[in-house]
Amino acid sequence: MKLLSIVIPTYNRCLYLDFLLSRIQEISVHYEIQLIVCNNSSTDDTHNVVNKWKSKFKEIIIIEHNKNMGYDYNVASGYLRVTSKYVWILGDSYL
Q1: Which residue pairs, CB below 8 angstroms and at least 24 apart, start in 84-88?
Q2: 37, 65 in Cβ contact below 8 A?
Q3: Crossing angle for the helix pair 46-54 and 14-28, nearest 10 degrees?
Q4: Residue of 29, 26, 52, 27 lying closest to 37 (CA atoms)
Q5: DSSP for 4-67?
Q6: Is residue 94's pLDDT more than 80?
Q7: 33-64 tens-digit pLDDT
Q8: Do residues 82 and 7 make contact, with C-beta atoms less than 8 angstroms apart?
């Protein structure tokens, strides 16, 4: 069992998300982290940003909602996929 899962609910902040994923990727090479990105039907380039980083993580789950479900549902959809002992929920603009 992994020790930590990071859940990132996101909506239309692809530039911030790209930077955040780059920072997480730097530490993920040293630690086994489960990463879960929940895209709440973004209309910007979020989908492409997530796909760009997909191959850089050992374990990444991408949840793509086909309509905006609201923040709470978006967070819960990621939380329900967690398989680690601890969870860290980060905002998509957390720098």
Answers
A1: 84/1, 84/2, 84/3, 84/4, 84/5, 84/34, 85/1, 85/2, 85/3, 85/4, 86/3, 86/4, 86/5, 87/4, 87/5, 87/6, 87/7, 88/4, 88/5, 88/6, 88/7
A2: no
A3: 10
A4: 52
A5: EEEEEEESS-HHHHHHHHHHHHHHHTTS-EEEEEEE---SSSHHHHHHHHHTTSSEEEEEE-SS
A6: no
A7: 999 999 999 999 999 999 999 999 999 999 99
A8: yes
Contact call for residues 10 and 40 (beta carbons, < 8 A): yes
Give residue 29's pLDDT.
87
What is the C-alpha to C-alpha distance for residues 7 and 9, in angstroms, rounded to an integer? 6
Structure token pair of residue 59: 């374990």
